[in-house]
Design goal:
Elements lengths: L24 E5 L2 E5 L3 H17 L9 E3 L19 H13 L12 H10 L1
């Protein structure tokens, strides 16, 4: 006799079945890390809801505030990646431009969204 065990992930918000290869989404709030299983649509909604706060906040520590682990994670991890989606070389050029144009930007850390927007408009 053979036994087969099947694990079916479901979206924690909608209850819909999720496809094979689904991984949990993790995020942290007030020092507490959470894990939730979401469809791609609900992950997009969570990211959109958090983005204004992420843009205005300052990243601390190694883990990001929102991470999609596993196969469906887009742009997660890897060397040279940043929350802005820009390469380290691009960020260095943006910092140089910003400091030359009246903005105060350090050599390390997050570059504010308003500075990225101003740079994009100027180029």
């Amino acid at each position: 006799m053979a036994r087969r065990t099947v694990i079916q992930f479901t979206d924690d918000l909608s209850g819909e079945d999720l496809p094979d290869g689904t991984r949990s989404t993790t995020f942290a709030f007030n020092g507490v890390q959470y894990s939730i299983d979401l469809s791609d649509d609900n992950v997009a909604k969570l990211e959109a809801a958090l983005q204004p706060f992420i843009d205005a906040g300052t990243r601390v520590g190694a883990p990001s505030g929102l991470r999609r682990s596993g196969a469906r994670a887009a742009g997660s991890g890897g060397s040279g990646s940043s929350g802005s989606g820009r390469s380290p070389e691009d960020l260095a050029a943006i910092r140089e431009w910003a400091n030359a144009n009246g903005y105060s930007v350090g050599d390390r850390g997050r570059v504010k969204g308003e500075i990225l927007d101003a740079y994009d408009k100027a180029h």
